[in-house]
Amino acid sequence: MSSGIAAVTLLPRHLLSLEKEQSAGPVLGVAYGEKPNLVEKAIELIGGIQRFVKQGDRVCIKPNISFAANIGCGATTSPAIARQVVQLCLDAGASKVILVDHTIQDPNLCVERSQIEEAVTDRKKVSLLTLNKERQFAEIEIPRGRELQSTKIAKLIQSVDKLINLPTAKSHSATGVSLGIKNLMGLIWDRAYLHRKNLHRAVAELGTVINPDLTVVDATKALTSGGPGGPGKTVELNRVIVGTDVVAVDSYTVGITQWYNKSFTGRSVKYIVEASELGLGEIDVGKMRIQERRV
Amino acid sequence: MTIPKRQKHRIARWLIQILFLALFLFLFFQIRYGNQSPFQDIFFRLDPLILLVTSIAQRAILWVAGLSVLLVVTTLILGRFFCGFVCPLGTVIDVSDSMIRLRRRNEFSARNGKYIALLLLAVFALAGTSFLHFFDPLIILERALTLVFFPVVTHLAGLLLDVRIVGYTETVAAFLVLALVIGFGFVTPRFWCRNVCPLGGLLGALSHFSLFRFSLYARCEQCSVCQAICPTGAISSGEARVDSRECIVCLRCQYECPHDAIRYGMRRSVNPFDLKRRQFLTGMGASILSLSAARFFVRRKPNPNLIRPPGSIPEEAFLSACIHCGRCMKVCPTNGLQPCILEAGIEGLWTPRLIPRIGGCEKNCNMCGQVCPTSAIRRLPLEEKIFVKMGSAAIHRPRCIAWAQNMVCLICDEACPHNAIRSVNRTIRGISLPRPLVDERICTGCGLCESRCPTEGQAAIQVFAIGEERKAKGSYITEEKVRLRTCEEKTEDIPSGFILDGN
Q1: pLDDT tens for residues B328-375?
Q2: What is the pLDDT at residue B294?
Q3: Does A74 touch chain B (CB under 8 A)?
Q4: Which parts of chain A have pLDDT scores under 50?
Q5: Among candidates A171, A6, A239, A195, which has minimal Cα distance to B408?
Q6: Which residues on neighbouring strands pair with residue A153, listed in sequence order?
Q7: Is there a contact between A109 and B415 if contact means CB atoms under 8 Å apart?
Q8: B365 at the A interface (CB within 8 A)?
Q9: What is the ipTM of this complex?
Q10: Which of A113, A260, A273 has its CB closest to that of B492?
């Protein structure tokens, strides 16, 4: 198997995690407020961007721009948040930043409607790529897979140094919510196949092979019903949640608002429970160390 | 080295022709999602044949093609210059003719064929149907560009670049029509323009009265050089006559005449109109035959599998107005708009239909109406287009993997941009899972669900033209529709991705 995958899989929690984090549970950074620097502040709370992006790194950012929905409804990652993440990476010395998604609807329409191009702050270093061709993907084994033994994942993420997962907080008609782990589905080729399997478990199994170095949840506007494509109920939360433990980030985010007018926790979302059972991270909010700051 | 005057002239004419062909191609590539610039369809607006036939067929003047009066007036002054300089199909024919290089001059001529074609189109139009798609040169070329040329271009470009590859369900007939038009060149040069093209016939009839024309002067020695080189066989040097209806004003005769005996200028003589009684009767006979044929073809049954683009006017009027140019199919960003083969009868060949399995109708796109040159698809603003009901989706439960195989699929629910598909918990043989249901009141028939249904082969959710709305005028927005869509809290079941208390 490609060594790139191994690196992506192994790097974050084993090498980057702080010593005390492992003993006392994962650290999450949560920033909220109206100011346009939520991402920077949230990442500062868990050690600053330098902890994740080194000089000369090639960084892949995975926003969710899978639907040609109007911005502001919460179905796609907001361009302002994406722009902040890109800028932070550049400031930390990234040599290349690539925004990438395998869109569900027509890629041109998705790019246009999401206004994600606003995040391309530097034409030389930042690029935007939609993955809609099979040749952009390579087959990998999923050693721990029960539902998925193998799948085709984006070749790009095997060749970059860092992967930043940038989902939007939204509801999902099948999985309940679509957050960090679910967002990784935009990096594989055959999305429909997962729906023909036990979707919740299959999504979690993806998390065993695609392991982002950092997850940033855009919860500025959350689509709390009618997801994943909208229209539905959009709630302004003005919040950004960051962390290296994607299960913890997802589990925490489930609790910050109501979904379908009901309150849930991470333990009530099947794909998060499956991910936790696969040992991908901490599901219990009580064991996390939440650093919260108003901006 | 100096270039002889006649060479200069030939080069100049080639340049003008190539320029117009290039403009036609340029405008063709301007047909793309998001491009709202006006005058993309300028060639079609200048075509008096489209104005004439469509206006008769739909019993209302096609104002958007009113500009073609310009061409009528200039033809009345200058003659049939359009065919010799502007017509992009004429240029394509000239290029192919120059490659064919007939060894032997063939004298075949059926000039009145183009008037008969014109008469035929008029009769069909009177019967309420437009058969322009087989005859109008601009339409033939535009459609061949869309259905034949463009897919090839995208396939080739797709080898190197990241472009969307398109394909169409009907390319063979579109190609054959163009191939036939070009292949006529094996009989005589410009065969199509001389004998078949009804636009040429219309402009030719106008040229009969044109102010400027060629005349032979007394110094003519009847050497027949002009007669031999004339691309449309308009000159009879024996009778010292140039037929202004045939002449495409290419000016070759004037520059090549060794005696300077033929000149283009203000009218000196009018040719006798020589549509003979026999030919007129032939024309009438053909018309009556074609009228009965038209009546035969016009009969049609509604086809529930035929989904027209959003904002298409009622079917009868649609078939009268649609010129089958293929522009809507070129612009469709999902490639879902495809040419009909026989789903709408012979007269409906190449008219657009939505095939959702290939691509659904994007909610935030109204481009097909924007590029339609005759408003067969209405130019609706986006806010109104999203309310147009093209049909309704229906779920085929035995094949749906959520209904029949207890899968948590719900891709159709995910795909639906109007939330017309709800996931509702239903228990089947003791297993309670969310299964998709369609709310027909909200469904617009866009087919995004069908395009993404993971059931292999035929989708388990399909759109039919049931409940389709076709309005010639008036708004598609109704209070009821707005109310249904803005219901603050729709009764949406909690997705099965959540573990509910007590489960």
Answers
A1: 999 999 999 999 988 887 788 899 999 999 999 998 899 999 999 999
A2: 60
A3: no
A4: 1-21
A5: A195
A6: A138, A188
A7: no
A8: yes
A9: 0.76
A10: A260
